[in-house]
Amino acid sequence: MDYAKTLRGALDGIRAEGRYRIFADLKRQRGAFPAAQQFTGSGSVRPITVWCSNDYLGMGQHPSVLAAMHEAIDTVGAGSGGTRNISGTCHYHVELEREIADLHGKEAALLFTSAYVANDATLSTLQKLIPGLVIFSDEKNHASMIEGIRRGGVNKEIWRHNDVADLEARLKTYPLDTPKLIAFESVYSMDGHIAPIGKICDLAKKYNALTYLDEVHAVGMYGPRGGGIAERDGVMDRVDIINGTLAKGFGVMGGYIAATADTCDAIRSFAPGFIFTTSLAPAVAAGALASIRHLKTSQVEREKHQERARTLKARLIAAGLPVIEGPSHIVPVMVGDPVHCKAVTDTLLDRYGIYVQPINYPTVPKGTERIRLTPGPVHTDEQMDYLVKALTELWERCPVAKDTYVRLAAE
After folding, report:
1. pLDDT one-digit tens code per residue, 150-184
2. Which residues are bridge partners to 106 per DSSP?
3. Which position among 140, 180, 248, 313 bears the catalytic label?
4. pTM of the model
5. Residue 260 pLDDT > 80
6. C-alpha dist (Å) from residue 218 to 46, 168, 204, 283, 323
7. DSSP 32
8. Rounded to whole angstroms, how far apart are CA atoms 174 and 258?
């Protein structure tokens, strides 16, 4: 076999589809976010404005987070030194897990290197620990949940997105004593939909099922203390296992689950994705700890973030741009074609200094390609005006995206 040719062929295939992804070489400017510098292939550097960061609240720039990380480096050094089981449990990890458990009103929490790993490891391990488990998965669940369910290898039911009637119809087909787990998200990051958590919990109680909720795009940003949509809706105590991230609303990196002490202990003891992974650097844990503590008491960032999201949506809609309207902070603008989507984002960056990443398959279904804007508390009115002006000019020159949006909205 010509291995190199095979790999080149695979890459040529996604290039032909317009799905080949190029990393933007960026250097954020401390204290000036969303301003950043882009390093181009020609070796030049130019200023840009970031409009697609998952650091939703700008906590990656917050003075208390940076100070905590500096203090941790000065106190204990750089890396953790090992897995959690072999010398890699630093006191910052212990404090952070306690803080997360308190945030979600659970007995315990367990840290992972990312929320992807947390989902994958937890869902696959639960299937091995609970004989006969059937998992009911929302059809728009994140790839990490899909992978964890797939690797577990047990029976699964894929229910229509946010459709509790379809979920109940599928739950009904199994005996009450069959072990069941309902896996879903609170905020679906590509469409901005929000799950009816309370109604799903009602069904879980009725049909004797566990609930597994991914709050990755909600923690820090919703609820009186940043506990997510479940906290905002007053149903956090009804959810059995909550997955979250430290890399979005909290501005650092890492992931976790929060649940009963026995659940966390079981995953800690049996999940290879936890057991054999070096733990988070102490400075990262310290920064996340400071971020969570700050957002438990401060409403400033959340309120400003929601206002900015509402304002940008209103301005885009007023300009006649194909925004997918939704109740969350996510601002998707439909394009509907991978080549066109990349052309839009390339032009935004090259001509306007606006950085937005194209969202193509497999992140979203083919034919629903889009750009996904993430306005934050520090995006100004002037930056919004400039963004709307740039997008309007591009859509006027190539209006196919509007036609695509109308077609998709009607389906």
Report:
1. 988 878 999 999 999 999 999 999 999 999 999 99
2. none
3. 248
4. 0.93
5. yes
6. 32, 25, 22, 23, 20
7. S
8. 28
